[in-house]
């Protein structure tokens, strides 16, 4: 009997930075990880603005489109709607191995920090926190207000990993893709997924 792989939940919200989300999905698919995907309404709008991806509103149609785009293996990607409360991620009896909100709006950050659980993204994050799984928040905003900083500190003390989308430049990137890959590579590091998306500091080059 084939052992089921622990899924990773990915949430895309309405902050700028769709390139990070799409590259993360691509990397997780290449790593043969099972993915639970949720996209907020604002996330769909920003995806359309920043890429050529115009996602349909229905989860099944969204799943079909993304499966074709990324050549996903059957069953590897599952897309859930914002009010789909019977999804596995809605309960601590079936939590994902980890969850990444990428990009993460400061509104989503606030909702997670106070345990609002108004939609499936917020509830999934709440489940991951209470079950002591890894929650990674790729926050995309500048400058940060006191409210943003207080919410980040609160969540960090709860065990969440706060990863503002701050790519490094010591590798002298020459393309936008290299900048995106640096940040996505750091997310993959937090997920303990091997990759070659960025150079390591101090690594010997030949």
Task: Give a concise summary.
The chain is α/β, with parallel strands linked by helices.
How would you explain this protein's 3D organization?
This protein is of the alpha/beta class. It has one domain (about 10-190): Rossmann fold (3-Layer(aba) Sandwich), CATH 3.40.50.1950. The chain has seven helices and six strands, in the order βαβααββααβαβα. The protein has a six-stranded parallel beta sheet, with helices on both faces. The chain is globular and about 50 Å long.
Topology at a glance:
Layout: E1 8-12, H1 18-30, E2 35-39, H2 41-50, H3 59-70, E3 77-79, E4 98-104, H4 106-113, H5 120-130, E5 134-139, H6 146-158, E6 161-162, H7 176-190
Parallel strand pairs: 1-2, 1-4, 2-3, 4-5, 5-6
Features:
206 residues, alpha/beta, Rossmann fold, 6 strands, globular
Unreliable residue stretches = none
Strand content: 5-15%
Helix and strand pattern: EHEHHEEHHEHEH
Radius of gyration: 16 Å
Full CATH superfamily name: Flavin prenyltransferase-like
Structural class: alpha/beta
Overall pLDDT, averaged? 94
Number of helices: 7
- Name of the CATH class: Alpha Beta
Largest sheet: 6 strands, parallel
What's the β-strand tally?
A: 6
CATH architecture, by name, is 3-Layer(aba) Sandwich
The CATH topology name reads Rossmann fold
| Strand line-up in the sheet with most strands | 3-2-1-4-5-6
**Total number of distinct structural domains:** 1
Share in helix: 25-40%
Shape: globular
